[in-house]
Amino acid sequence: MSDPLVLFMPSGKRGHFPVGTPVLEAARQLGVYVESVCGGRATCGRCQVSVQEGSFAKHKIVSSLDHISQRGPKEDRYDRVRGLPEGRRLSCSATILGDLVIDVPQDTVINAAVVRKRASDKVIERDPAIRLCYVEVEEPDMHKPLGDLDRLKAALVRDWGHAVGFDRLEVDFALIPQVQKILRAENWGVTAAIHHDNGEARIIALWPGLHNEAYGIACDIGSTTIAMHLVSLLSGRIVASSGTQNPQIRFGEDLMSRVSYVMMNPDGRHAMTAAVRQAIDSLIGEVCEEGKTARTDILDLVFVGNPVMHHLFLGVDPTELGGAPFALAVSGATHLQASQIDLSVNPGARVYMLPCIAGHVGADAAAATLSEGPYRQDEMMLLVDVGTNAEIVLGNRARTVACSSPTGPAFEGAEISGGQRAAPGAIERVRIDPVTLEPRYRVIGTELWSDEDGFAEASKLTGVTGICGSGIIEVVAEMFLAGIISEDGVIDGSLAERSPRIVSTGRTFAYRLKDGEPSITISQNDVRAIQLAKAALYAGVKLLMQKQGVETVDAIRFAGAFGSFIDPKYAMVLGLIPDCELDKVKAVGNAAGDGALMALLNRGHRREIEETVRRIEKIETALEPDFQKFFVDAMALPNKTDAFPRLSAHVTLPERKQPQEGEGGRRRRRSR
Amino acid sequence: MSDPLVLFMPSGKRGHFPVGTPVLEAARQLGVYVESVCGGRATCGRCQVSVQEGSFAKHKIVSSLDHISQRGPKEDRYDRVRGLPEGRRLSCSATILGDLVIDVPQDTVINAAVVRKRASDKVIERDPAIRLCYVEVEEPDMHKPLGDLDRLKAALVRDWGHAVGFDRLEVDFALIPQVQKILRAENWGVTAAIHHDNGEARIIALWPGLHNEAYGIACDIGSTTIAMHLVSLLSGRIVASSGTQNPQIRFGEDLMSRVSYVMMNPDGRHAMTAAVRQAIDSLIGEVCEEGKTARTDILDLVFVGNPVMHHLFLGVDPTELGGAPFALAVSGATHLQASQIDLSVNPGARVYMLPCIAGHVGADAAAATLSEGPYRQDEMMLLVDVGTNAEIVLGNRARTVACSSPTGPAFEGAEISGGQRAAPGAIERVRIDPVTLEPRYRVIGTELWSDEDGFAEASKLTGVTGICGSGIIEVVAEMFLAGIISEDGVIDGSLAERSPRIVSTGRTFAYRLKDGEPSITISQNDVRAIQLAKAALYAGVKLLMQKQGVETVDAIRFAGAFGSFIDPKYAMVLGLIPDCELDKVKAVGNAAGDGALMALLNRGHRREIEETVRRIEKIETALEPDFQKFFVDAMALPNKTDAFPRLSAHVTLPERKQPQEGEGGRRRRRSR
Hints:
- In chain A, helix 10 (469-481) packs across helix 13.
- The first copy, chain A, is elongated and about 100 Å long.
- Chain A has five domains: 5-108, Ubiquitin-like (UB roll), CATH 3.10.20.30; 130-208, Ubiquitin-like (UB roll) (Roll), CATH 3.10.20.880; 215-353, Nucleotidyltransferase, domain 5 (2-Layer Sandwich); 368-409 and 530-666, no CATH class; 418-522, no CATH class.
- Mean pLDDT of chain A is 91; it is low at 108-120 and 659-672.
- By secondary structure, chain A is an alpha/beta fold.
- Chain A contains 17 helices and 31 strands.
- Chain A starts with a strand and ends in a 24-residue tail after the last helix.
- A six-stranded mixed β-sheet of chain A has the order 16-15-14-17-19-18, with helices on both faces. Chain A has a six-stranded mixed β-sheet with strand order 30-29-20-21-22-31, sandwiched between helices. Chain A has a five-stranded mixed β-sheet with strand order 2-1-7-3-6, covered by helices on one side.
- Chains A and B meet through helix 3, helix 4 and strand 18 of A and helix 3, helix 4 and strand 18 of B.
């Protein structure tokens, strides 16, 4: 009779183990990550699992509660002291008696940080770079006069070396003067935080007795917004999330103006570095307060950001990023200590920054790539993160290419006459009646449309203050669909006869979206700004498609705040993105933040993205002869040369002046 | 016909290489250490070798200048710019044409730091933990947007990885913000200092262009004196040496009073740590000035010291060392950065501290063990470093044991009525006429004996101020040999009838060594103090001999200042050390400092002493039942139970009350 078969879920890893093997030991042998701090003493409670009962035909296994040992005195004691939920077992104490299906609770679920559109929840398998390891150290012995630290190391290697995967340990120098007091405080029982990443294992923190809390920070440093998660490294749970404005905005709204600030001001780099570090340190304080967590329990921090943010955060002068050849000071993943960048967390806490892909495609794009994983699948996936620069990644399992394209700030509401940031009071949705050309809209802060009862009341608090990025996309797309603008973007002045919404502004015309104070008008210049921005984005995408040799993409992911608010249909009507099944176009929120979280919770993901970034082919648009042509073609709505057959199944596009083969319907008006 | 045979001296490594192989490449393939900074560009001049001409029958090789390529344009250029000494060749440019014997200059020769007795000069083969590596880095390329640092690393791995032995590089975080400016300053030529020790290779410093200087510090932190060498890591030459008093003396003369100071004063540890670090930093300034070396060119530092000095220097509270079980905070070798202990050297400079052997046997004893190498030879070697504690090592290739023994400060002139430190004016040599009992002596500062013409004049500047450790050994030994004291150490009062030198001091007698101001008298208490000290030392030695199962030792090495000044014969007459051939008893000066130097210049020696310390068997005298008996026996002069047959060939020892078998001559007077 063979040994019992044990199947771990959700990983699906399985193996045969002798009767009496502790479940934790079986998990370790199979490489299934089950947390444990106390090292099998049934005191930390981190190794909880549950047993699935039943016959699992697919796995040819019958699992039963009779196949696991009864709760013993250690688990009873843990239950009395700290409480063991119904159905949960401590895997260090429960032993295998027969075939079992074991559930390892996966508490880490990524929820997209942006509130309104939730990315599909994703489970992150845990294997953090930091491990808490409790040991009981031998007392000093005059016959074997090893130092206290040396005996501590020996105990850690003995009890944890195999499970965690190290056979020697370094130690942070700052701990050496403390080690004797810590060892003696709780009778030679001590918890070590071991950082095991990048080829070495190192003790970075020590506590007397059992220390059962370890936290990490995942942070996306955006030019505009800094977003942060506080996460338990022991359960994977996100205990708090927060965001704040990047205080560097006072030195310059966009990236290039910040680079200029550094070039013009001798201490500009220093001031901006200090500003962003202080903001991050304050944000750490906020999430700690919200999560009721001590700063000193934060042991690992992962940061992502675009190249300029990345460099300024590290204290590197970004001047080289301001002009060709856009040389990064460092592109590879960077390891450092939190104390080296003035963050008040545990003195031994480590920092990991994801690699940058290229001079314009940063660690944020790398993180988004890690999160969405085009390289993990067969579909040709387009990943777009729109900011002042669009960072664009296109690929599948076989090959991944990336570039950035200078979209400018129009999509963020800048350089648009009535434009503003996405904030309460901003118009975010627009519909235009194709017959009357009358608009209706919705503003951030209420669910009501402007022509619905109660809108005036509902919008009283915020007012209607301007139009944000997604609103601009929609109004221009609706103007196009209603025939107000032609495919080359010109506002049709002849319509002024038909509707008072079309007004002359001298040599050109404009569309009056909203009267009153403030009045919001879409001018010819506004349309041009959107055309330029979308042409840059589309031309970048087109270039990558050309590199991949594909005419179409299978899936599109919009990362970032902008992508979270726009309607894929309107983005496609305008020609921001190529034709694609609408249900394969998804906003994934702060994918960069999600990638940072993955790198925080699993060091395997660090190696994965480092390797992926090495393999990604970087395309520099400025060096590509076809980019200019693609750009000019993309000035037309939706595009001069490309067809949108899959979009046309949902929307009737206006007919082209010179229709292309394969173009869809010919009706000038669309039905909705 | 086989390839030419090339033999490198002094290592004796040899191999066959194709005609045209550069000599440097041949050396690397054989693992012969030849320095090179420029990486074969013939600009640094560090790879110089010379060719030995002639027939070397022992090696079956005929070497000739015709067997090496003629000086080419690169060597001519180097000669014009920097000068190439007659007979020297740049091994990166000279190629092999036929059989060759190549001399690799070994500039590192240890000279014992103590001036008067020179240890036999020793050559240290070089393989330092720090290497300077010049590379030319590829310029940024928008098609391959690797960061500047990443391209630097790639260039270093490409040009140096094989020669130095690394395939990946870490980098100190502090360098990241500087890397772009440094790379651009000299047109992408840059010199990196790579620290390659302890399992990782890491860039710790960067300079634009060719940087051709790297220095190290080897330092012995004694309780009384701090001794330091400044050494070129590129040539191995000691460019300056200096010493200073340990300023911790103001907190307590001996180790235990310093430990007590820490226990009594809340900031005592901090004050003593700051004091010793400041003294070392000042000493670094001194040797830099003497050696005309910039502090920023110091890249590696090795420190040794006894356990209390070791701990205080590292900032560790030494309280645990003040009582059983004498637990060290850390016993293993310690790696840190110079900036972590407030030393003003290169910001990336590394510090290595040798391991401690036990709570009373420190890194200084480990360094002395490394220097004298009992474990490298077949002879049973006794290594003794006398201070307030004697650190004692006994061993050979097969087995090494070590202990410490509480000799107290008598050997250093403390607790002796006329005692003083070894300094000008101190009596260091004494002879007593066995008939008249009249003494003559010599003082530090003049070569003349007190009964020679001109002594009064010669000693006028210093005076005769007291008696130092070696003087005390000699006067007590001479009193014994002259019959003034018996084998149990009692001053024979009956001799007062015969000589006015013997005077009554109440219940005991004393010997008047010198009259006048100050008068110096050897009292019964002084003799007792020396008896106690020597008994402790001898008992420790005896214990180790018992552990090794030997009745005799083959060689004795006295390390430290004390050992440098005493005459082995008198040490043996008193019974400080066991019987041994007198010409096998050697003072080796500051062997601890020599060991530090070896660890500085060759990282292989670090691994060697780490491994040796793990293997050394540590004996704790307090736990050994026989120690007390050995101690009591050793109170007698030279010893109650042991014979000194080999000493007796040189000196006639007074006969014993109950002579032992094997004892030598029976005459009460000796001839000299």
